[in-house]
């Protein structure tokens, strides 16, 4: 039984298989490979893109999906997460997709070895399917070779599970990763080049990954408001000029705070491509975990 708690659960050859499957699914709709499979989604935090992307991915492969609303579940009546999970597994699903505010939650459930667990985002540590769809988007753009390319991750890095998973995966794939944020937004335990001003690295980078500003997560205010934050870290035409730099963002984008309207409409911005590619990568992940790893 294989799980996806973070991208290190997959070997290099499995990641290559995922990229090839996602590319194939994008060019040709696959047969109903998972027509007899049942998935349960368990989202303890709000989600639009990830949850709907998983549902579309599963249904395109023929699987059935049942959504459990934790706000109405027995966890609100004092039942532990483990007991809730065990009761769901008694119904014999083929996998559970979970989002949780605690970093350790998906791993705890995976260790119970009752059904494959897929981490759809946990705490500030891991969002593996986002990292994998970003990898797919980058490989597609750079014709299959991202080794030696430089990516700047810009924004609230310390609170971002997208940044955390992305750093691990993209570094592993040979990219040079730079972090751009005010010092309180920078992680202290990651040994990567850190900068406070985007202008200091703009001529070095091939890709910018903008993150959602999460000022509310900081107990001590760094900026008076989002407008002040945007004056320093919003990705604008002034920053990019005519440079050939790819722009990514995991969403939801805060317009004119994370990325300007002008850049969101720029062909260098791949936000909607990421959303589209997310479906194909999640199809590949479901195929690997529910079909391939059992053969």
TrEMBL record:
Keywords: Pyrimidine biosynthesis, Transferase. Pfam families: OTCace, OTCace_N. It is an enzyme of class 2 (transferase). Pathway: Pyrimidine metabolism; UMP biosynthesis via de novo pathway; (S)-dihydroorotate from bicarbonate: step 2/3. PANTHER family: ASPARTATE CARBAMOYLTRANSFERASE, ORNITHINE CARBAMOYLTRANSFERASE, MITOCHONDRIAL. This is Aspartate carbamoyltransferase. One of its GO terms (biological process) is amino acid metabolic process. Catalyzes the condensation of carbamoyl phosphate and aspartate to form carbamoyl aspartate and inorganic phosphate, the committed step in the de novo pyrimidine nucleotide biosynthesis pathway. Residues 147-288 form the Aspartate/ornithine carbamoyltransferase Asp/Orn-binding domain. Carbamoyl phosphate binds at residues 49-50, 99, 127, 130, 251-252. One of its GO terms (cellular component) is cytosol. Residues 2-140 form the Aspartate/ornithine carbamoyltransferase carbamoyl-P binding domain. It comes from Sulfurovum indicum. GO terms for molecular function: amino acid binding; aspartate carbamoyltransferase activity. The keyword Transmembrane helix does not apply. The gene is pyrB.
